[in-house]
Amino acid sequence: KLNVGVDTVQHGVEGLTYLLTESSKLMISETDFQDSIHVLGFSDELNKLLLQLYLDNRKEIRSILGELTPKLPSYHNLEWRLDVQLASRSLRQQIKPAVTIKLHLNQHEDQTAQVLQTDPSTLLHLIQQLEQALGEMKTNHCRRIVRNMK
């Protein structure tokens, strides 16, 4: 009916979908949206229709995108205990420390608990890796990625 190829229609739909989802993710204002589509060279009437389509559907698009994100467990509480074995029948003078951690998590309104046990050197290595990851989050590259994910 349109007298155009299937690829042209498919690319048009994909482009429109991309434009609306990215604009909704970033919650850009009307003027920013108009500036973005003005560059595409469409007529003023089509630009107004696209703007109205964006304004009418951006909340719904954001809610759908929110539902598509994975629901990961979140932190609720942490309990820990340090156990030290000072001697055994065969070795009277030994020190064998162990750290036991009980991690309480919330997932879909349910609380779960994970019990972990490790030695202090592995725990120190884990702490260093987490601190390094937190330091990475402060870089401009990661900030840009996180900003675009919201």
UniProtKB/TrEMBL annotation:
A Pfam short name: COMM_domain
Domain of life: Eukaryota
Stored InterPro entries: COMM, Commd2
COMM domain location: 74-141
PANTHER family in UniProt: COMM DOMAIN CONTAINING PROTEIN 2 (PTHR15857), COMM DOMAIN-CONTAINING PROTEIN 2 (PTHR15857:SF0)
Protein name: COMD2 protein
Organism: Stercorarius parasiticus (Parasitic jaeger)
